[in-house]
Specification:
The complex is a heterodimer of chains A (472) and B (390). With 472 residues, chain A is an alpha/beta fold. Among the domains of chain A are: 136 residues, no CATH class; 92 residues, no CATH class. Chain A is 53% helix and 11% strand. In chain A, the strands form three sheets. In chain A, strands 7-8-9-10 form a four-stranded mixed sheet. In chain A, a hairpin with a 4-residue loop joins strand 5 and strand 6. The two termini of chain A are 49 Å apart. The relative contact order of chain A is 0.10. Among the domains of chain B are: 54 residues, no CATH class; 181 residues, Rossmann fold, CATH 3.40.50.410. In chain B, helix 9 links the parallel strand 12 and strand 13. In chain B, helix 5 runs parallel beside helix 10 and helix 7 runs parallel beside helix 8. Chain B is flat. Classes of the chains: A alpha/beta (472), B alpha/beta (390). Chains A and B meet through helix 1, strand 1, helix 2, helix 3 and helix 7 of A and strand 1, helix 1, strand 3 and strand 4 of B. Strand 6 of chain A pairs antiparallel with strand 4 of chain B, so a sheet runs across the interface.
């Protein structure tokens, strides 16, 4: 990490600009602390746009290789070349936090972004969900992810890229299937209580000879009636497979656990997106407004970028069929701080995630003012706007966020022959699975489980449906 | 712990590699593998045999999707949230692209239906894959006993020669070498001069002619022809690997034989019975007139459902025997879609008899698409064995 004062001299203009950015950000930081923001210091790094794009696509600056990231990468590249997408920053909480900015973005943009990142840093330090993850994982996700990537590349060299890819196909397909309320570090289920030994007196000559017969001598597997595995439906599939797959090798389990750790890291970011982006947007707007040391021109350009980010729909349209989390979060925080003051806002910031935030603080008045609505799409693609009902609206906003955005699928039985039984809790999800994709995802799992895997769900018509893969 | 933030910008190492590009290339490789597994579907296009002069086919492919468990989107409409000016009950008629999930986390980047990948597959690559996959031997050109073509090829250098063949580059090199060794060197001496030499070489016959012969009597169904076409296509490509020039002729017959263009060849339907000798005789006439066996490697492929008039038997057998003497190899493909015959067909009997007499005929029965590969393998192995120098 290089300090601002020993920047290379080669590009004087860039260095001067970087110096001004360092200067502004130091003063913005001081202002933020005066306004009561409470954050770990941030290591900002200016990186080229193409690297920034990779950080955004992979979610982490150095992450395990997988072809599916390549697909996201190319989509992002195309979107960016078409001008549909512009990445400003990616921030990783920790002590210190790490934030990446794009070196080709303008000074006003990057000034805005440093203020935005301070908002994130405050949120990440104080929000209970973030704090809980930091406690479990130790706030070293960048190093851990790089270490995972390194181990996976070594595994590829040792065991062959094909085998490693097969494991990653399965593990990454299950990325959101963790138990977000559970612990990152888990012990196996408590061992089943061994069956009571036969009373020694009862082992008469007949019993002894009987047990000496072929096939009778082996100690019985856990007797029926002892604790089954899993003892209750297990939603942490990554952990369950890493722990109980009958035929997986150590390095394969290791990959599952690496994916799981990263998944735990991503969860607070996912579950607090509206709050977090809104909070950061509120603070960048406020910090810039109160930073009287900024030149007017710079302030105007920065605030123009602000309104591009925090807008509900593209400039040319009047309506969006999705909600911009920046806009919604920003509007809600403004509404809360105006109505209840900053102290209440800070408390909400600490205690809630998006579920509590939306359900408790998205008021009917605000929803009306923002023009939020619920709609349904029928089979022909026609869209009908629903009644204005705040409860339905809140649930519609939150629906994509339930259970980490994935169907609720649990491991429900590990049979004595090693076959695995998965059950989709279609009742709480309200519908069945996309069967075609489910079959392929199951296929990935089957390749690493290496015994039959069965998944129960329901079909389009609501009839029970059972998918099975058998791989050897 | 430090209490201030820092900004840095020393990042040149990022330029050294792109993980995104690396994973993207891996994706493309997977697409190619997937395409490879579905080759036969790709070449089902019309006119691919003669239309493939540019030696490559463009195949539109979809991005591969890394499947995850997802809820069923086609289930009864579920509520979603939007924003903008609207009234309850408004209906929007929309051609909405499926909205993508959150970028970054769990987003699969779906809903990019407008982006298509065009994969350009080189036919030679396809054939290389197949050859590798089936472990096929390379074809041997016929050991030519007739008139050899002769050609002059460059071969080595000499210190004497015609001025026009002076190799100036080589001469200069020699001068440089000499001057490096001598104390007081001359710029050039006569010893430095190098002239290109020509030598006369016998040239192996590298032209081939392929006759595709098809029974188009009413009993040959569309699917049977498709099988034959698939076989023809790959057989041709296999021959093209070996020969610089390949002429192709399409002959069809019922009780008489005609020559067709490729397009007509696979569509024409005749009525009436089957007299294979007519096609064999037509091939003989063409060979006689246009393709002297001393200059051409001759291949014949005949596809039929095996029916042939018994009265034609002697004629067909005689003609085929004559062809067998002229041709490198004859491939007989019997299409028998989905049925197992208890007894041997007329045509197969003829071919088997000839094969027993040592004629270069290889017979295969195609009942399914997969049989095409087996038949190709048999054919090319047979061909290699038949022409290998003893």
């Amino acid at each position: 990490m290089t300090h601002a004062d020993d920047l290379p001299r080669a590009q004087d203009a860039a260095a001067a600009e970087s110096q001004r950015l360092a200067d502004y950000s130091a003063r913005i930081e001081a202002l933020a602390r005066r306004l009561g923001l409470d954050f770990h210091p941030v290591d900002f790094e200016l990186v080229p746009n193409n690297f920034m794009m990779e950080i955004a696509v992979y979610g982490l600056p150095v992450r395990m290789p997988h072809w599916s990231f390549g697909v996201r990468y190319i989509h992002q590249l195309i979107r960016q070349n078409m001008g549909h997408s512009h990445i400003f920053e990616v921030m990783f909480p920790g002590d210190p936090c790490h934030a990446y900015l794009v070196d080709s973005n303008s000074l006003p943009e990057n000034t805005l972004v440093t203020a935005h990142v301070l908002g994130h840093a405050d949120f990440a330090r104080n929000n209970q969900l973030f704090a809980r993850f930091m406690e479990m994982a130790g706030g070293r996700i960048l190093e851990q992810a790089a270490e995972h990537a390194h181990r996976i590349e070594s595994a590829a060299a040792e065991f062959g890229a094909q085998r490693v890819e097969a494991v990653l196909d399965a593990a990454l397909a299950l990325e959101p299937h963790i138990d977000v309320n559970g612990e990152l570090h888990r012990l196996p289920y408590p061992a089943a209580t061994p069956p009571p030994p036969l009373p020694s007196g009862a082992a008469g000559p007949f019993d002894r000879r009987y047990r000496a017969l072929p096939g009778e001598a082996a100690p019985l597997p856990p007797a029926p009636g002892s604790r089954p595995i899993p003892p209750q439906p297990e939603y942490d599939l990554l952990w369950f497979i890493a722990q109980y797959a009958p035929d997986m090798e150590g390095w394969e389990r290791d990959i599952f656990l690496a994916v799981r750790t990263e998944s735990f890291y991503f969860y607070p970011v996912f579950a607090c997106q509206i709050m977090n982006e809104g909070w950061a947007s509120y603070w960048h707007a406020r910090l810039l407004r109160e930073a009287d040391f900024l030149p007017d021109q710079l302030y105007l350009s920065a605030i123009k970028s602000h309104s591009d980010v925090v807008r509900p729909y593209a400039a040319e349209s009047q309506l969006a069929l999705a909600i911009n989390p920046y806009h919604l979060g920003f509007s809600m925080w403004e509404d809360i701080i105006e109505g209840h003051g900053l102290e209440v806002a800070r408390r909400i910031c600490r205690e809630e995630d998006d579920f509590g935030f939306i359900r408790n603080y998205l008021t009917p008045e605000l929803a009306e003012r923002l023009g939020l609505f619920v709609y349904r799409t029928d089979k022909d693609g026609d869209i009908t706007i629903g009644e204005r009902d705040i409860h339905a609206l809140r649930e519609a906003i939150l629906a994509p966020k339930f259970n980490y955005g994935a169907p609720r699928i649990a491991a429900t039985a590990l049979q004595p022959d090693g076959s695995l039984e998965l059950t989709h809790d279609h009742q709480s999800d309200g519908r069945g699975l996309d069967l075609e994709r489910a079959e392929r995802a199951l296929d990935y799992i089957g390749r690493v489980w290496r015994r039959p895997v069965t998944l129960r769900t329901i079909s389009d018509s609501g009839a029970p449906r059972e998918l099975t893969v058998r791989k050897t | 712990m430090r209490n201030t933030s820092v900004i840095s910008a020393q990042t040149s190492w990022y330029e050294l590699f792109s993980r995104g590009a690396r994973d993207w290339l891996r994706h493309n490789q997977k697409v190619r593998e997937a395409v490879q597994e579905n080759l036969t579907d790709l070449i089902a296009n019309p006119d691919i045999i003669t239309g493939s002069q540019q030696r490559s086919v463009q195949v539109p492919v979809h991005f591969l999707e890394h499947a995850r468990f997802r809820l069923n989107d086609s289930a009864p409409a579920h509520p979603e949230a939007g924003q903008g000016e609207s009234q309850p009950g408004d209906v929007l008629h929309s051609v909405r692209p499926q909205s993508g999930a959150d970028a970054g986390h769990g987003g699969e980047g779906e809903g990019e239906g407008e982006i298509r990948l065009m994969l350009e597959l080189n036919i030679d690559d396809i054939m290389d894959w197949l050859w590798e996959e089936m472990r096929l031997p390379e074809l041997q050109p016929k050991a030519s006993g007739g008139i050899d073509e002769r050609q002059l090829v460059r071969e080595g250098w000499d210190r004497h020669g015609a001025r026009a063949r002076l190799d100036r580059r080589r001469t200069l090199k020699e001068a440089v070498k000499r001057r490096a060794l001598q104390a007081d060197p001359l710029p050039f001496t006569d010893d430095d001069l190098r002239f290109r030499q020509l030598a006369q070489r016998r040239k192996e016959t590298t032209s081939a002619v392929v006759f595709f012969m098809l029974d188009v009597s009413a009993s040959m169904t569309v699917n049977e022809r498709r099988l034959a076409k698939n076989f023809f296509f790959f057989a041709l490509q296999g021959l093209r690997r070996q020969y610089a020039r390949v002429d192709i002729r399409f002959l069809a017959h019922t009780t008489q034989a005609w020559e067709f263009s490729e397009e007509e060849f696979f569509q024409v339907t005749g009525t009436g019975g089957t007299g294979a000798s007519t096609a064999f005789n037509l091939a003989l006439r063409l060979i006689d007139g246009e393709f002297p066996p001393s200059q051409y490697n001759i291949y014949l492929f005949y596809a039929s459902d095996g029916e042939n008039f018994t009265e034609d038997r002697a004629a067909a057998s005689t003609s085929l025997r004559k062809l067998a003497e002229l041709a490198n190899t004859i491939g007989y493909i019997e299409t028998a879609l989905g049925l197992l015959r208890s007894s041997e067909t007329e045509m197969k009997a003829i071919c088997d008899e000839l094969e027993d007499d040592g004629a270069p005929i290889s017979t295969s029965i195609l009942t399914r698409q997969e049989d095409v590969w087996r038949a190709l393998r048999k054919f090319f192995l047979r061909q290699a064995g038949a022409t290998e120098p003893a």
